[in-house]
Specification:
By secondary structure, the chain is an alpha+beta fold. It folds into three domains: 43 residues, no CATH class; 239 residues, Aminopeptidase (3-Layer(aba) Sandwich); 125 residues, Alpha-Beta Plaits (2-Layer Sandwich), CATH 3.30.70.360. The chain has twelve helices and 19 strands. Strands 2-3-7-4-8-18 form a six-stranded mixed β-sheet. Strands 1-5-6-19 form a four-stranded antiparallel β-sheet. The structure holds zinc ion (ZN). Zinc ion binds next to α5.
């Protein structure tokens, strides 16, 4: 009788959820409980129950993490305090490495022996904004269809962090001699800014991690390389004048146009002549200008113009060659003409961010992560990660995490439950392997 009632209740909830298409996580939890009890009574579908139960604790954790609006412009401290408090329940100490204003922090924690390096599982806690995006549901509340969770950060990349956290009881139980480290950063989305302070701390330590898995979304496939990225802002100061007397002014917008056109020449050259590495998409270095701001009215020679540009380069391409040629062009062609009219005219560059390329050559690490994820082969991706920065301080890194990048940064971002389960399996396999 109980079985019938519970199954009916579950059936009703499922129907409601289908009617709404998307359902709240609370309804999901009730369904899971109902199914679990029903299955216990029927003694059937044990495998299904096992899977649901395992995923459920991860899903609860994803729900908690997505509930914190950690858009990069906000503080992430509430989330960090939540994770710190959670880890404390298992006797695990967290080290927080703050930014200058103490508004944000990285969290580093070690489970197992603390006198030696182990395997770092790394993820960023910040997410991209939802501004201007049309979401069907509240982005900071998990909504679930049968096999997907929707919410900002589900894919990029709170699900990976949540799976790590949900596995803590099992990790603690193992009393690991080779420890697992958690490295959770801030401000990744604005140029891998936050993790740098953590890595400066770790760099000198004899017991820093021996290797690192960055859990960015790769569909749980092993990514060994990604492009590097350099982005810069350029500000051009010219001289204002009436447009009827354009010859006595210095037109900052036109100077910017020439510089951007010069950069576009590089973009075409790489596209047409390479060098090519067909593991990447696109298989060549790209040069791109994203914003231009300048001018006030058509009849005024503009005195100020800024633009932002980026180079995403193959690991073996040296972006300095582009910058050197660009500066030569500016010094020989652009600036002299401007300064002939107005000696104070200037072109000023600021760095927005540099994300080093990742190119792991550590074959053992690649093989190990392939075995842990039950996959073969390796991939390369066109998005940047913190992996190159870990490698820069001598920690070999690969990227492997749940979800797919084309589901990230968009309205209605989501992750498939099957990806969460694969990630759980990955951590289980890691635990089986470590002692
Ligand atoms: Zn990410």
């Amino acid at each position: 009788m109980l079985r019938v009632v519970l199954e009916l209740e579950a059936f009703n909830l499922v129907n409601i959820s289908f009617a709404n298409n998307l359902q709240s996580i609370r309804a999901v939890r009730i369904i899971v409980i109902c199914y679990t009890v029903a299955i216990e009574f029927t003694g059937q579908l044990q495998e299904y129950k096992r899977e649901m139960t395992a995923a459920t604790s991860s899903i609860e954790m994803i729900t908690d993490l997505v509930g914190f609006d950690t858009t990069s412009r906000n503080s992430n401290l509430e989330l960090i305090e939540f994770v710190k408090g959670y880890l404390e329940q298992f006797g695990i100490a967290s080290e927080l490495v703050f930014d200058d204003e103490r508004r944000k922090a990285n969290l580093f924690a070690t489970i197992g022996a603390t006198d030696r390096g182990g395997v770092a599982l790394s993820g960023h806690t910040d997410v991209v904004p939802v501004d201007g995006q049309k979401w069907d549901t509240d982005p900071y509340e998990i909504n679930r269809t049968d096999d997907r969770l929707f919410g900002r950060g589900t894919c990029d990349m709170k699900s990976f962090i949540a799976v790590c956290l949900a596995k803590v009881p099992q990790i603690v139980e193992k009393n690991l001699e080779t420890p697992i480290h958690f490295a959770f950063s801030y401000d990744e989305e604005i140029g891998c800014v936050g993790v740098r302070t953590l890595l400066r701390e770790l760099e000198q330590r004899p017991n820093k991690p021996r290797l690192c898995v960055i859990g960015e979304p790769t569909g749980m496939r092993v990514v060994r390389a990604h492009k590097g990225k350099i982005s810069r802002r350029c500000t051009i100061h010219g001289l204002e004048a009436h447009s009827g007397l354009a010859h006595i002014g210095v037109n900052a917008v036109e100077a910017v146009a020439e510089i951007i056109a010069f950069l576009k020449g590089f973009a075409r050259m790489f596209r047409d002549e390479g060098p090519f590495d067909y593991e990447f998409d696109p298989p060549y270095t790209t040069v791109h200008t994203g914003t231009v701001k300048g001018g006030t009215a058509l009849n005024i020679v503009p005195k100020l113009c800024t633009f932002e540009t980026e180079i995403r380069h193959l690991p073996n391409d040296d972006p300095d060659l582009i910058w050197n040629q660009l500066h030569e062009f500016i010094d020989n062609e652009i600036l002299p003409e401007m300064q002939a009219v107005y000696p104070e005219a200037s072109i000023v560059w600021e760095e927005i961010s540099i994300i080093p390329a990742l190119s792991t050559s550590d074959k053992k690490l690649i093989q190990m992560t392939q075995e842990l994820s039950n996959t073969t082969g390796t991939g390369c991706v066109s998005f940047g990660t913190e992996g190159g920065l870990f490698e820069d301080i001598g920690i070999p890194s690969v990227v492997c995490g749940p979800g797919y990048i084309d589901q990230a940064h968009k309205p209605n971002e989501y992750i498939d439950i099957s990806q969460i389960q694969k990630c759980e399996q990955f951590v289980d396999n890691l635990l089986d392997r470590l002692n």
